[in-house]
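Chain and backbone:
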Amino acid sequence: MSIDQIIGLITGILFGFLLQKGRVLRFDKQVGAMILKDMTIFKFMLSAILVGMVGIQFLASAGVISLSHKAMNLGAVLFGGTLFGCGWAVMGFCPGTSIGALGEGRWHAVFAIAGMVVGAAVYAELYPFFKSTILAWKDFGKIGLAEVFGISPWFMISVFWVGTIGLFVWFERKNL
């Protein structure tokens, strides 16, 4: 086992632990998120994004890593986002929460995991069709918001932090 695999295993276990401690694996939290009555999952995800964006930008600024954006393809975003949302709504799990729920002993998560594996296989088989249709809709290239607006990534991160904290305050005032 390589050091990268060991690090991946450790961070995966830590992520699962945090998912469980954040109570985002619970069915009532999943349903609450779907009907916009419980923002626990959104707060968890946004918190992870806030920490991750600072860490990644810090590593990039220090020259430890180099950033390479994936192309922003309108068809892929719309189609993939719709499929992801439908799967989450039907099963009540995303990929991370399904594994976490299975780890908690909720065996029905196996159906969500199997659905994701089958979906990935179907996508792989249909990729030539998707490439000439949905994935050909509009490709904006490898862009990021900082490049689009011509500003510092650190400024974008600051704006996102302020907006997200404001959103958290609003969620708390509304008891979400």
